[in-house]
Amino acid sequence: MWQEILPNTWESILSPIRSFEYSRKNAVLVPAAALGVGGMLVYWLRSRHTIKTIEMGDGWWGSGERPLKGKEDESIRPFKIETSDKEIEDLHRRLEQARYTPPLEGAAFHYGFNSSYLQKVVAYWRNQFNWRKQVEVLNKYPHFQTTIEGIDIHFIHVKPSYVPHGRAVQPLLMVHGWPGSFYEFYKIIPLLTEPAGHSLNEGDVVFEVICPSIPGYGFSEAPHQKGFDAIATARIFHKLMNRLGFKEYYLQGGDWGSRITISMAQMLPQSVKGLHLNLVFISRRGLRRMISVMLGAYVPWLVGLTREDVRRTYPFIQKNIYELLRESGYLHIQATKPDTAGCGLNDSPVGLAAYILEKFSTWTDKSFLHKDDGGLESKYSLDELLTNVMIYWVTSSIVSSMRFYKENFSKDPGLAAGARVGVYVPTGIAAFPQELVHTPHAWAKETFKNIITYSYMPRGGHFAAFEEPKLLAQDIMNFVRKVEQL
After folding, report:
1. Nearest alpha-carbon partner for 173 in 203, 137, 209, 147
2. Which positions of the chain have pLDDT values less than 70?
3. 440, 313 contact by CB (below 8 A)
4. Is 0.70 topped by the overall pTM?
5. Is 250 a catalytic residue?
6. 317 conformational bin, left if phi > 0, alpha if psi -120 to 50, beta if neither
7. Sheet strands side by side (includes 151-158)
């Protein structure tokens, strides 16, 4: 009997205690669980709004090992382009000894640079082109060099001669591409630094312009170590702007300049007031893009494409695959074994001119493929074109400029750090109709999250600042004006 009564008695005593302890645990556990879930929800919501960035890192591109002691010389040194009789005589000798292969009949520029027209270019180069005069033209803007990460960085820095009272001067870093140079910006610089004097505006937007040479291009020293890519360039250019005393600045670029300035915006968005591009790189692909491409030709409005997008994008295979393959053979060479082809180009000024100037033909206007002279002189003068070639020739920089492709395409671009990071700074896009590829606004906004202006430019191609400086200057000013009003 006691064996039956005692368990029942103890159970009646312990039951309220267990019930109290259980309710007390619930009083602790339920709020704790709610707090944990709430915390996770807050973290998730905040992480959605956290801007991902590219790690800035550091680098050393000088010869040999990085010095363990001593601070890098951060001085800004005036620089002047010079030439000599010896340099000019050597050029003339090589031009006189050039050999040519007769072009196929009716080939125009379909097989590359037409050698009949090339002989006319070389004759002008040898007998009429005045390199000493062009050196004076190049030196009309202030040039500088400074050492960053072990290599000398060349740049020009042009300030406005007059600023109306109360007007802020906006620092603008403009970055060239291949096969261009800082010289591409010579016609647009006065429009940006002295806009009122060129009937562009009332001076409400005025810039001081900084145009660096990408390391390995022109008068910037070539990296001595492997691995120098667009992210390393972006970091060096941020350091350059910081060294010049700028905390915030605008960026502008096309070709490699686009890739570099995009990386700068992804790396230090707090330093970039705005990003203006005349070429947009979109590396993201997938089912969404495939559907957009397929439906775009028939119901463009359904996938956010405009009539102008359709005109520039379709027939898709022809404009985005066939034409791109036709114009990108150089890329495959430079992205794999640049030094091999570069040897011949660095030794022959005629070969170098043909290789570079061919791009200024069909990249300016695809229809120039059908012209015997490549349409080169319809948009540029021979003095302008040959000055750009001479920057590569006198600095022996063609090989190091080509290596930039190898360094950037040595791994899958889709797996690169920048491909996984969006661009959140205010962005302006100038879409020129003869650009190698067209990126519609609907596709661009997948990467660029804060597009302020998107302009369908009425004319022009790949070398926008060189070919259509006024159009590009107007678009940059319109973009900056809107950003400053935000």
Report:
1. 209
2. 1-49, 202-203, 284, 412-418
3. yes
4. yes
5. no
6. alpha
7. 77-79, 143-148, 151-158, 206-212, 169-175, 249-253, 272-277, 427-431, 451-456
